[in-house]
Amino acid sequence: MCSEGVINITAKRGDGTGYNRDIYTPGVVTHSPQGYYEVREFYVPDYSAPVDSLAGMKDLRTTIHWAPNIVTGEDGTTAFEFYTAETPGTYRIVVEGLDVNGRLARAVRYFTVE
Fold this sequence. Notes:
Elements: E1 89-98, E2 104-113
Antiparallel strand pairs: 1-2
């Protein structure tokens, strides 16, 4: 079972000074959220464009592919495709995720583009 929520605990000091977030209080962690962030879709270049229109453009991205919603099958495997940058070299793949029980998983692999 999964639920989401917020716990807000407000307390007043007994000395009548009221609440002051700048006063150190042992055991109290004050968190001030910086605002709402709207999730954006990861940019993927349109490789269906004619090759001539892309001539002279270098692909200098440091993050080649990012997909936050990949789900594996019952056997724990999945497949997906992406384009690498045109620069030859060794690329690093980092896969991170959670299983249905909330356990973390992380794997790092390398492959070479010639």
